[in-house]
Amino acid sequence: MSNKTSQTIIAVLVSLCIIAAVIYLEKGRVRSTGAGANDSTIVLKTEGERIAEKNGKYGRAKEISTPDGFINSEPFSITGLIGKKVILVDFWTYSCINCQRTLPYLNSWHKAYEDDGLVIIGIHTPEFEFEKDYDNVKSAVQKYEVEYPVVLDNDFSTWRAYNNRYWPRKYLIDIDGFIVYDHIGEGAYEETEKRIQEALRERAVVLGEDEDRIFSDTGKSEDVVLNNGVKTPEIYFGFSRIEYLSNLPSDDCFRRVCRYKLSEPPLNRFSLSGDWIIGSESATLSSGTGTISLYFLAKEVNMVAGSSLDDEVKVKIYIDGSLISESNRGLNVSEDGVITIKSHDLYNLVKLQKSESHMLKIEVIEGSLEAFTFTFG
Which of 157, 183, 318, 327 can pair with 361 through a Cys bridge, CB separation 3.0 to 4.6 Å? Predict the structure, then answer.
């Protein structure tokens, strides 16, 4: 081989090396969004670098496990959304007052950001047996105007996959399938919305969409009901979690009819009168009329209840021995102080101006009441 040929080959190889180096550097360049050294910039990392960085900071999303039904969508998987969408998973159950108060925010985010790549998934994990019924959940979805997908998780398998223990709880999953944010309970709506926007901006960069998209907050105020002044804890009627019943005749009264004598309970406790059966989840009036008395300290009183015979139940509400006044009536109480219970759901009994202690009496005047829990606000 002549020297001239060797020199030509070397020149070609050097040129190829230079071109390869330029391409490599261009891939890792900082892409400026405007002129000037002080302008905001977006660092375009390779996919491998981005994933490696997140692996050290975040956990991976978990798949929907053994779903018991889908509402507002055909069956789908979280895996099928990763790489395409930002996902907000919300664990809820429809009789939970804390979950109900969160739904308006979720609805507003769905409307505001669906077109930008956000998918909200409501994982409905039931607290009570009646919440496993597909039609009950569908009715609740319609009642609260939920338009995003809802998945029934009756066996708690998805709940356990996320190691969750709370209603409600939100997990934000980014474009790469990492859980980049989670929040327990109510509140932090402004922070959650900002995290959603951050994840959507990253999605736009990764997918090469409108990277300069400016998001406007939904403007929904932080209308959170804080438990300021509430001293009465959540109270369950079923024997599996019963703690605050003050007049249990004997330990043999579970799963069978027992007669309870009228008595006034101490603060933060309740009592029964009449013939009741206490089951694992609820207390049911067996026959005739009966009452539930509760001495509470709170601003609002709610009760999860229904009819054990699928008939209509009517109860009358008293405060401190008198029929509840107009100023103290809960949202579900009529002008004559009566609540008509038609389905298993949460009913708002008392709504005060401030947190106070009062004796509440619920008198069953028609039907077979099934009571599950008291919650307070």
Answer: 318
pLDDT per residue as tens digits for the range 165-202: 999 999 999 999 999 999 999 999 999 999 999 999 99
- Here the CATH number for the domain that contains residue 114 is 3.40.30.10
pLDDT digits (tens, 9 = 90+) for 26-43: 433 333 333 333 443 444
In Å, what is the CA distance from 65 to each residue of 59, 88, 331?
18, 16, 37
Do 32 and 49 lie in a common domain?
Answer: no
- 42-94 tens-digit pLDDT: 445 678 889 999 998 999 999 999 999 999 999 999 999 999 999 999 999 99
Question: Which residues, listed in sequence order, are joined to residue 307 by a DSSP beta bridge?
Answer: 369
Does the residue 93 lie in any domain?
Answer: yes
Domain span including residue 84: 45-207
Token pair belonging to 159: 């709940």
Distance CA 79, CA 85 (A): 10
pLDDT for residue 81: 98
DSSP code of residue 254:
B
- Residue 101 domain-assigned (yes or no): yes
Q: Residues 6-25: what's their mean pLDDT?
A: 47
Same domain as 243, residue 367: yes
343, 255: one domain: yes
Domain assignment of residue 87, yes or no: yes
pLDDT over 70 at 8, yes or no = no
Q: Which residues pair with 120 in a beta bridge?
A: 88
Distances (CA, A) of 38 to 30, 33, 35: 13, 10, 8
- Across 188-282, the runs of DSSP E, i.e. the strands, are 235-236, 257-260, 269-278
Which stretches does DSSP call E strand in the chain?
30-32, 41-43, 59-60, 70-71, 86-92, 118-124, 150-152, 169-173, 178-184, 235-236, 257-260, 269-278, 283-307, 313-319, 322-323, 338-341, 345-366, 369-376
Structure tokens at 337: 């102080």
Same domain, 276 and 354: yes
* DSSP code for 359: E
Give the N- to C-terminal CA distance of the chain in Å, as an integer: 91
